[in-house]
Write a structure and sequence with these properties.
By secondary structure, the chain is α/β, with parallel strands linked by helices. The protein has a single domain, classed as Rossmann fold. The protein is built from seven helices and twelve strands. The strands form three sheets. A seven-stranded mixed sheet has the order 3-2-1-4-8-9-12, sandwiched between helices. Strand 8, helix 7 and strand 9 form a beta-alpha-beta unit. The longest helix has 16 residues.
């Protein structure tokens, strides 16, 4: 079963990344973790983010993979929701933002961009660092909390069991179709994305999105080379 799961992930995550055009930008987005004071109110089997770095380590490993497989000239930009790590850092009394910043320090091919709002994220998607006239987006992947309608950047971080910073499918019309290269590869590694969000993403951006029907699984990732798994009964779908 594990081998089948990893083969399915590689079909989407490895094969499609090699189709990126040179002189393009590949975007990886990491949402923030829940804070423990909220998650400790849940039953043990329902808790999220026991480890603060779920959406950081998986993104880092994926970016290493992209760097190996994408054509020369592909720029890799990592957009990270800052406030989630600031809140968790205060709770754990650990320098988590510095830990995140240590990743591009160790892997110079990664360009880190912090964001604090959905508008900032959309602005970067549409404009990049200097406009999208030349540097189109060849890939977009999201690591974080989500439901069938939204990416939730701060789920259980600011407010218990909800989010105050999100990208809802109703906001996808703000994203410019022209920002994306033809055949751009897009994937959400969050829960439930393929149940609605993926379809709207395709209609607004023109790019297919791979997502989960059901829940994704960030537990025991060290046993599967830091690949995000699927909960029982879930599956990857491109819509």
């Amino acid at each position: 079963m594990k081998q089948l799961l990893l083969s399915s992930i590689c079909l989407f995550a490895c094969g499609f990344a090699t189709m990126a055009a040179a002189d393009t930008e590949y975007l990886i987005v990491s949402g923030g973790p829940a804070v423990r004071k909220f998650e400790d109110l849940r039953k043990p089997g329902e808790q999220h983010d026991r480890w603060w770095g779920n959406f950081i380590r998986t993104a880092r490993v994926r970016m290493q993979e992209i760097q190996r497989t994408a054509p020369a000239g592909t720029r890799i930009t990592w957009l990270v929701y800052r406030d989630g790590y600031v809140r968790r850092a205060a709770e754990e009394r650990q320098p988590l933002t510095q830990n995140v910043e240590s990743v591009p320090a160790a892997y110079p091919f990664i360009n880190l961009v912090w964001f604090r709002s959905t508008d900032e994220l959309i602005r970067y998607i549409n404009q990049g660092a200097s406009g999208r006239g030349r540097l189109k987006i060849s890939g977009f992947e999201y690591f974080g909390h989500s439901n069938k309608f939204s990416f939730m950047f701060d789920y259980s971080s600011d407010v218990y069991a909800t989010s105050t910073a999100w990208l809802h499918e109703n906001q996808l019309g703000k994203i410019s179709r022209s920002a994306f290269a033809r055949n751009a590869f897009c994937q959400s590694w969050g829960c439930h994305t393929a149940e609605s969000f993926s379809k709207v993403w395709k209609s607004k951006t023109g790019s297919w999105m791979v997502g989960a029907v059901g829940k994704t699984d960030y537990s025991y990732m060290h046993e599967r080379n830091w690949q995000v798994g699927l909960s029982p009964g879930s599956r990857w779908v491109r819509r």
